[in-house]
Every structure is written in C-alpha cells, then in structure tokens.
C-alpha cells in the first residue's frame, strides 16, 4: 500500500475500476487487509491506534487542513475505559479529566428541582470522566505516526469491486486499499456516496434517504482560567454539573461544568419550534464569531448558581465559542462490499447521555477485532467481517439511540409532555432504579482481542464479548501440532 495518496498519480495505466494495472491487489493473500480510514475524528483516530497495535496497515485521510474540535465538555463512561487501559492511555486520560461529581437541576430562578451524586468508584471500577474535548483529541492524534495521516484530503468519490477499493480526492489524487472505513462524521462523504450508488441500484432502504432531525441548536464554549476566590467550587477534585432549565415560555436550557485548569465549560441549548425569535436567530445567523456574539448578548442576563451567563461569556475568547446543531439519525445501511461506516457516519446520536463518542470508539474496538480475524484476506472474508461488525453492534446501538432521545427530551425539552417526563424521571423514579440503569448501561465494555486484556473492575457483572475466531483457530492448530509432536 502506498504511504501517500499522491504516489498513485504516476504514469502507470489505470483500469476502468480505477486501479493501476501493475498494482492490482491479489484476490487472496495472507497479508492483513489494507485499511483506508476517512476522517480523523475520535472514531477514526481510535481505530488507527487499534490497527497500529494489531499490525494492520492503515492510513487516515482528513478533509480539513487542521481540525479544531469544539471546546465542549465530554464525558466518557466506564464502557470505554478498559480499551483506554489496554492501550496504555487511561492514566493520561485521567490527567486532564475530573471524575463526575454532583449534578443539580435548577429552574431559571435557581430553585433546585433535583440533584444526584456520583456512583461510587468501587461499584463500576472506574469513574465517569469529564474534560474539554480538545484534550482528548490531542492525545489521540499524537498516537498516530505522522506518515499515516493525511490532511486536506477531501473525498470526491470511491469505487470498489472484488479486487479492492479506490478513493479519489479533490486534489485529483487517488489511493487504493482493501477496506474503506467511513469515520467522517454526521455528514459523511463516504456514506453519501455509498448511499447514492445503492439508491441508484434500488438497494437502499427508504429510511436512509430521510434527512437527519434537527431538534436543538447549541452554543458552547470554555472559559479561560477563572479566579477560584470567586468560583471556589472549581478547586474540588470532582466535576460539578448544573442544569438550568428555562420556564415554559422559553426554549433554553443552559448547562455548566467545572473542568480541569480552573475553568467552566458552558453550553446553551435551544429547542427549535418553541419560540419563533429563537428559531430565527439560531437558524439564520452565520456560524462566525461576530454572529455568535450577537446571540450571546441576547442571553447574557440568564442566571447561574455562580453569577450570570454574561460573566462566563466575558471570560471566554469569542473565537473559542462554537454553534452546533444537535442532529440525530439511525441509519440502516452501514456496510456494502468493502465499505463500512462507524461512529456518527452510521448513527448520529443526541449528546444528552454522552454516549456518542463512547459508541464511536466502541465501534472502533469491535471493528478492529473483526478486521483482525480476516485471514486470509479475500473479498468474501472482508464482507463477512464487515457483516459481523454490524451484527455485533446494530441492536445495541439501536437501544442506545432510543435512550439518547428520551434523555434529550428530559434534559432539554420544553413542551408540556417533556416537562412532565422530566418531573417524573427526576422526582418520581427511585434513586435505586436510576443507579440500576446506569450500572446496566456500563456492563458492555469491549476490549481489543489481539492485545492483553485488562481484568474486569467493579463489583457488578461485565457483559461478555465475542472472542476472536482467528486466535481460537490458532490455539487449536497449535494444540494439534503439539499433540502430533508429542506422538512422534
């Protein structure tokens, strides 16, 4: 496999399928499959790190010249921590994180309506960790060898057949490999091109043609370092979270998190369809700092337990403020031929539960396991491995997707039924039932099959995962060979 997309534009003849005649990959080989990863987001980077450990050749192609991840708060739950521990990254992850602490729900007049504390560490074996998103991205990006990641590579199209897959980029270069992974986010170019081709062939389910739902829009930012004399709670080792929910006449919810570095990450969520003025402001404004400032000026008087939103806005550089749609959609078509979708490209979830990033990285773990099991490398074995990936993930993701919608309504919803739902979940549901639900949500903790496993942690059951067929077969062959040797 070439180490750079540019090397495929030399003078060698190109077949009608897009491959150089002298470089056609063999139909069956004992070499591991060559993986092309579209997208250098969390899913793509995590997959690259895993493939590096598995000894599977890969390259990552990112459309942007430079990625600037949102300064939003992120939460990773115990479902993904074992994989970080396997990769030797867990202690580094904890170094820029705070464990989850108290969460308090307020009215817009700061009346407390509900509160909850963290799950004891010994129960799950790990803490829920909260941090600013760029810190995680920077850590993962640094794990990828520089020669294996290519920036400013916008995908125009791709072709695939029984011999391989070829990507064509906007700079008129091409690259080919054995497998294409679309890890390029909610508006995935890989998904759009794959679905277009399948739709032309009458193979795409109609549900996959529908647009993603846009129910919420958010402004998000992280302050510079704050004065702990004014904000003493920042010195606590745990992350404190405050949800402030506007009255029934407004579409606003604003959320504050304490993060390392004596900073506050703030997030203002607007539910579309509740207030016409808010809809107009958030839909029509350009996504630039000047327009974000206008929106911030409209809401700077909103109260928080620590002053007004305006106090936090003034401590946040405007270039570090982002506006983003909260979109969601569960796609049915994740794989076809040599192509597979992971993360937001396959299932865009609402960020109400923090499971979007967790599930994207879990996708990477399970897909890496399936790719490791491909031996020999053939078209049939590749298709079987990609099907196995979807079979292991689809039902689980469907359940997670539904839960994210319900919790979004609970956290951000402002119509009558959503307010009733919030009151019931926060005030009527027993704490023991909420704890049981959180424990169950953390049972599935996939690990890479091809590197040493870390032990199960916590006092509760951890769900089993599918073992590696390749490793089992190799053990059986080694045992049979040892038996023959002993007989001789």
TrEMBL record:
<dbReference type="InterPro" id="IPR036188">
    <property type="entry name" value="FAD/NAD-bd_sf"/>
</dbReference>
<dbReference type="GO" id="GO:0004497">
    <property type="term" value="F:monooxygenase activity"/>
</dbReference>
<feature type="compositionally biased region" description="Polar residues">
    <location>
        <begin position="1"/>
        <end position="14"/>
    </location>
</feature>
<keyword id="KW-0560">Oxidoreductase</keyword>
<dbReference type="Pfam" id="PF01494">
    <property type="entry name" value="FAD_binding_3"/>
</dbReference>
<feature type="region of interest" description="Disordered">
    <location>
        <begin position="1"/>
        <end position="25"/>
    </location>
</feature>
<protein>
    <recommendedName>
        <fullName>FAD-binding domain-containing protein</fullName>
    </recommendedName>
</protein>
<keyword id="KW-0274">FAD</keyword>
<dbReference type="InterPro" id="IPR002938">
    <property type="entry name" value="FAD-bd"/>
</dbReference>
<feature type="domain" description="FAD-binding">
    <location>
        <begin position="316"/>
        <end position="371"/>
    </location>
</feature>
<feature type="domain" description="FAD-binding">
    <location>
        <begin position="35"/>
        <end position="196"/>
    </location>
</feature>
<dbReference type="GO" id="GO:0071949">
    <property type="term" value="F:FAD binding"/>
</dbReference>
<comment type="similarity">
    <text>Belongs to the paxM FAD-dependent monooxygenase family.</text>
</comment>
<dbReference type="InterPro" id="IPR050562">
    <property type="entry name" value="FAD_mOase_fung"/>
</dbReference>
<keyword id="KW-0285">Flavoprotein</keyword>
């Amino acid at each position: 496999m070439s180490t750079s997309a540019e090397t495929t534009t030399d003078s060698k003849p190109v077949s009608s399928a897009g491959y150089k005649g002298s470089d056609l990959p063999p139909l069956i080989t004992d070499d591991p499959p060559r993986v092309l990863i579209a997208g250098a987001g969390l899913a793509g980077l995590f997959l690259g790190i895993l493939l590096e450990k598995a000894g599977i050749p890969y390259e990552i192609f990112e459309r942007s010249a430079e990625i600037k991840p949102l300064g939003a708060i992120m939460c990773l739950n115990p479902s993904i921590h074992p994989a970080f521990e396997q990769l030797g990254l867990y202690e580094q992850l904890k170094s820029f994180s705070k464990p989850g602490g108290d969460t308090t729900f307020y009215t817009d007049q700061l009346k407390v309506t509900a509160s909850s504390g963290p799950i004891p560490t010994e129960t799950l074996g790990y803490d829920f960790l909260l941090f600013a998103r760029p810190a995680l991205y920077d850590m993962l990006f640094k794990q990828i060898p520089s020669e294996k990641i290519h920036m400013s590579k916008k995908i125009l199209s791709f072709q695939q057949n029984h011999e391989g897959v070829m990507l064509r980029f906007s700079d008129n270069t091409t690259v080919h490999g054995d497998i294409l992974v679309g890890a390029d986010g909610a508006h995935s170019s890989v998904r759009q091109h794959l679905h277009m081709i399948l739709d032309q062939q009458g193979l795409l389910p109609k549900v996959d043609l529908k647009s993603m739902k846009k129910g919420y829009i958010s402004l998000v930012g992280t302050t510079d370092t704050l004065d702990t004399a004014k904000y003493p709670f920042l010195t606590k080792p745990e992350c404190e979270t405050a949800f402030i929910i506007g009255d029934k006449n407004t579409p606003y919810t604003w959320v504050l998190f304490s993060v390392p570095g004596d900073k506050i990450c703030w997030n203002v969520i607007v539910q579309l369809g509740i207030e016409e003025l808010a809809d107009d402001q958030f839909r029509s404004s350009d996504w630039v700092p000047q327009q974000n400032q206008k929106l911030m000026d409209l809401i700077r008087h909103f109260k928080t337990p620590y002053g007004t939103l305006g106090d936090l806005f003034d401590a946040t550089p405007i270039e570090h403020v982002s506006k983003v749609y909260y979109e969601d959609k569960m796609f049915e078509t994740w794989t076809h031929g040599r192509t597979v979708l992971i993360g937001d490209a396959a299932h865009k979830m609402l960020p109400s539960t923090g499971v979007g990033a967790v599930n994207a990285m879990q996708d990477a773990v399970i897909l890496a396991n399936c790719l490791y099991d491909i031996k020999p490398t053939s078209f049939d074995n590749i298709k079987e491995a990609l099907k196995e990936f979807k079979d292991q993930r689809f039902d689980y993701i469907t359940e997670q997707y539904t839960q994210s919608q319900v919790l979004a309504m609970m956290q951000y919803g402002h119509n009558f039924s959503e307010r009733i739902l919030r009151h019931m979940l926060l005030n009527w549901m027993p704490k023991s039932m909420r704890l049981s639900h959180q424990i169950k949500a953390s049972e599935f903790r996939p690990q890479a099959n091809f590197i040493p496993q870390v032990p199960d942690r916590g006092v509760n059951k951890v769900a089993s995962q599918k073992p590696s067929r390749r490793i089992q077969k190799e053990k059986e062959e080694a045992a049979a060979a040892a038996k023959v040797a002993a007989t001789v």
